[in-house]
Amino acid sequence: MTDSIRLDGRVAVVTGAAGVIGAATIRLLAARGARIVAIDRREPDLKSAIADLPASAEALAIAADVTDEDQVRAYVRSACERFGTIDVFFNNAGVEGEIKSITDYPLDAFRRVLDVNVVGVFLGLKHVLPVMLKQNRGSIINTASIAGLIGSPQIAVYSASKHAVIGLTKSAAWECTGTDVRVNCVCPGLIDSRMLSAIIEGRSGAHVPSDKIVDRVPARRLGQGSEVASIVAFLASDDASYVSGAAYTVDGGRTAA
């Protein structure tokens, strides 16, 4: 069957491109015809993430820190200089921070999580939105989390940062009123990844069997980065032309209760 969700020739900028979700997303967007600008702080991992992309992706890898406004401005400028525009922006970079109770959480660690997860998303919006508003088209997808929808012990700071991402998403969507620029976010649940392992081991102090982890997930399994990527690709496409200001859960039913 022909894939109806095509992104042929569109320019997609993806931050956090070397992570599980970011790497899965650049692969899928490239497979659907997009040209890729991959952003991550970790240059070796970034090069590995783009190594197998098709030649049609014309992949451009840029090592950048999303918390540094000069570097954000520079990656947006580089994308536009190389491809002339930005059609899709997956504002995805994020960190889990320390796994501690609020009373034990160091202030510098708190600020670091907000700097990456909130300031980084804000700066991406600040510098990509003008490009899209000028051309009166584009799709931005921010990465939030189910932690942005519910509370959770020992990751209160991460949860607070992801609540903020949802707020930024909804507000940005309103600021694009009357245009063809859409802003949405994805809220991944328990995705098989380094971040999930770090959170679980930080809480328990030991490895926890996967069957214990998924007891409260109706799907009874961990999600895959590719499953988040599929929602990102949908939101990036014309099939989602009437979708803006939405928070899409990709959580196997975890937040259904």
UniProtKB/TrEMBL annotation:
<dbReference type="InterPro" id="IPR036291">
    <property type="entry name" value="NAD(P)-bd_dom_sf"/>
</dbReference>
<dbReference type="InterPro" id="IPR020904">
    <property type="entry name" value="Sc_DH/Rdtase_CS"/>
</dbReference>
<feature type="domain" description="Ketoreductase">
    <location>
        <begin position="10"/>
        <end position="194"/>
    </location>
</feature>
<dbReference type="InterPro" id="IPR057326">
    <property type="entry name" value="KR_dom"/>
</dbReference>
<dbReference type="InterPro" id="IPR002347">
    <property type="entry name" value="SDR_fam"/>
</dbReference>
<protein>
    <submittedName>
        <fullName>Putative levodione reductase</fullName>
    </submittedName>
</protein>
<comment type="similarity">
    <text>Belongs to the short-chain dehydrogenases/reductases (SDR) family.</text>
</comment>
<dbReference type="GO" id="GO:0016491">
    <property type="term" value="F:oxidoreductase activity"/>
</dbReference>
<keyword id="KW-0560">Oxidoreductase</keyword>
<keyword id="KW-0520">NAD</keyword>
<dbReference type="Pfam" id="PF13561">
    <property type="entry name" value="adh_short_C2"/>
</dbReference>
